[in-house]
Amino acid sequence: MKVDGRHFRSIWLEPDGRSVGAIDQRRLPHEFIVAKITTADEAGEAISSMLVRGAPLIGATAAYGMALAMRADASDAALERAGKMLAASRPTAINLKWAIDEMQRALAPLAASARADAAYARAREIADEDVEINRDIGRHGLGLIETIAATKKPGEPVNVLTHCNAGWLATVDWGTATSPIYQAHDRGIPVHVWVDETRPRNQGASLTAWELGHHGVPHTVIPDNTGGHLMQHRMVDLAIVGTDRVAANGDVCNKIGTYLKALAAHDNGVPFYVALPSPTIDFSIDDGIRQIPIEQRAASEVTHLTGRTADGRIETVRVVPDGSTVANFGFDVTPARLVSGLITERGVLSADRAALASAFPERSKVS
């Protein structure tokens, strides 16, 4: 997608053919900074610190991290060590494990002398594949928006609710939940996005709003607890969110607060869709609520806020009283029964094992 008229991916191989460039998402929306990642350890730190975030982008970053590890040391021990280090950087997004497994599967049979070049080639393939997958997700999701648009008066927008950031910043390009929105907008279909701020890290207010603004998509940032009110007053036509892991039974793990939006959507008859690439499906898990590990993040994400002051300074301030205990669960799980459909690169599917296994038999058999 574009930033000030220039096309960017969220991650890329630098012209030197070795190091990796990535947008530092911790600095958005106030500063656009490109970080250079030169070692596997730096790739792991980029993931854990949320310099990069979003399940598909985490996977792509891990793939490049494996390539950087092989450039430094292509031994069997180094291959195993890099995989374990990167796998420990974030526990919830299954794309991380998928990408590491893909890299190890491609590299383990090779001689050490051939691993570095092969690792860079496979990492580039994973990134390019993600772009095409997300383009196809958008193509299938576009039909949902077109159907609603056909019921509207001329010029009346389709109102879409999002949660967190499932945009191109969370993938290599296009995004998952935003891909249908971008494709609808680019086709001239009036669309408006309600952007949940998504506390505590404010990925909606900081990232989704930033990228929608740069693409010219009309949007409104709302506090997290506003969605139910909007749905009651028929101000939301559909919700589209992303996900960090989908269980084999269709349960969806996404940023904390997603479950509450799904409940509100169900109560008000608002379609609630989840957009995801197939590497996000974990066929080894049958019950998302009981089996998906939920990351608990630092208390400082809740106790402190960072923003730009009136005179342009970036400041961090404390908003919680000293001594108050904080719980910071990063994700929740939305039961499959609340999901209207899963928007994948192979179509819009029912949120159940049969539909997922039928659409992706090659993955369901190996898990």
Task: Give the key terms.
alpha/beta, 2 domains, 18 strands, Four Helix Bundle (Hemerythrin (Met), subunit A), 367 residues, four-stranded mixed β-sheet, 13 helices, Rossmann fold, seven-stranded mixed β-sheet
CATH level-1 class of the largest domain: Alpha Beta
**CATH fold-level name of the largest domain:** Rossmann fold
- How many beta-strand runs? 18
Q: How many whole angstroms does the radius of gyration measure?
A: 20 Å
Q: Largest sheet, described in full? A: 7 strands, mixed
Helix/strand-derived class? Answer: alpha/beta
| Number of helices, counting only DSSP H or I runs of 4 residues or more | 13
The overall number of domains is 2
Percent of residues in helices: 40-55%
Mean pLDDT: 95
Strand order of the largest sheet: 8-7-6-9-12-17-18
Unreliable parts: none
Can you say what the CATH homologous superfamily of the largest domain is? Answer: Translation initiation factor eif-2b, domain 2
Question: What sort of overall outline do the alpha carbons produce when their principal axes are compared?
Answer: globular
| CATH-defined architecture of the largest domain | 3-Layer(aba) Sandwich
Distance between the termini: 33 Å
Q: Into which percentage range does the β-strand content fall? A: 15-25%
